[in-house]
Structure formats: structure tokens, C-alpha cells
Amino acid sequence: MADIAALVSDLKAEQESVDELLSGRSDEDWGADTPAEGWTVAHQVAHLAFFDGAVTESIVDPDAFAESLKVAKADPDYTTTVAGPLVQMRPDDLFALWRSGRQPMYDAMTGAPAGLRTQWYGPPMSVASACTARIMEHWAHGQDIADTFGVRREPTDRLRHVLHIGYRARGFAYANRDLPVPDADVRIEVIAPSGGTWVFGESETDVIRGSALDMALLMTQRRHRADTALEADGPLAEEFLEVAQAFAGKPGSGRRPGQFPPAA
């Protein structure tokens, strides 16, 4: 059984890392364009704030969340729609709103009944999966903010959560592009930030190797493969690096080759 308290602790740490990127920033900084086309820093925080609230509601008030799902299914631009009003807030107020939603989310997750599966915009998921998804989202959107301000973040072993989701979502990544899902597995062997090797999958013939950071950046589409040092052996490994997607929703356009060249 997943250790929800430990997952929530990692989520808190990931949110605090994004908080550090934002603290003391000017209103002009909040209006800066990020690498995600059409998204400013304020859009990034608005997105995080709204969906933190959504996951809390999915746990504590599933009936209300079910109603919001109907709205989401009827609006192909739901993510943009819900962020709109929040982006119009003063940056200090938006910052405070995002911060204020954290403890209620932690409390909802740690207080949820054992075995609860929450509704979501995709398939229902466990509370542990919901928490892991929020860690991934904060890391990925935090990367956009860090890239906007030219900040290099030190990777942590919380990246394991990002890779776990990205590997588990392999079938989704194919189906999301209307591609047939391969029957065979791939294996991912990466070097963790703290040293040692993390392994996902069991294939002996299709293997991806590199750093956990590069794999997380690729799975969240924050780096083009050309700007990583990832290596693939086997056609399915090569293919997965082209379609990998750790997040829900439509396939993104990702980043351009050479947009973030590796440091020399």
C-alpha cells in the first residue's frame, strides 16, 4: 500500500520549490511569456491553483466534482477557460490563492478512506496516483517557470514520481495519438539524482538509458529529445521517446530542437 503521508511530503516539497521561484517576483515577471506557447507565468500558477482545488473537490465532494466534469467534457478548451479568470487576478492575489489551496489538498489526501478511487478528467484514480500526478504537474510547470527566469534547478529524487507516471502512461501516450499500443514492453534505465539506477519495465530488447532528469524533461515535453543525452536501443524504445507524455490532455507540441541545448 502506498505511503500517502510520504507522497504528500514530496508534493509539499515540490510546491515549495515552485514557491521559491516566484517569491519576490515583480508583476512584470508574472506577465512574462513562458516556453509554453500562449502561457505566461500567471497562466502556469493559475493552472496549478485550479487543478489543486479540483483534486481536493474530487476527494471531499465527489458530487460537485461530477458536475464540473460535465462542464469539462463540453468544453474542448476547458483548461484555458478555467484559467482565464485567475490570470486576471493581481499576481499577489493569485499567489495567495495557490498557496491557500495546499493544506486543504494535503488534508483531503491524508484523510481519504483507504482504497478510495477519485473521479478525474481521465479514468478514476487512487489517492496515491492523484498525489503523484500533482507532484509531476508542479515539477513540470515549475520547469517552465524556471526556464522563463533562466534558473537551473537541482534535480531531486522526486523525479521518480514523474518517471513512474510517464512509464505507466505509455499506453495512453500511443492511444492519445490514435496509434496502436504495442504489446511488448520497454525498459527504462536511468541514473537517479542521488546516484544509483532506477529501472522501469522489463524488456531485454528495447531499452532507454540516460539521466532521470533528461527522461523527466522528455516525458513532460519540456525538452526535445535532441537536447537530451538519452539513448535508445530497439525500435519500441526509439518510438517511445517520440510519443512519451506524462500528463493528461492532448499531445503537446513540446519544445523545439536546440531550444534548450545542454550545458557544455
From TrEMBL:
Annotated ranges, domain Mycothiol-dependent maleylpyruvate isomerase metal-binding: 12-146
GO molecular function: metal ion binding
InterPro entries from the UniProt entry: CHP03084 (IPR017518), DinB/YfiT-like (IPR034660), Maleyloyr_isom (IPR017517), MDMPI_metal-binding (IPR024344)
NCBIfam families: maleylpyruvate isomerase family mycothiol-dependent enzyme (TIGR03083), TIGR03084 family metal-binding protein (TIGR03084)
Protein name, entry field: TIGR03084 family protein
Source species of the chain: Epidermidibacterium keratini
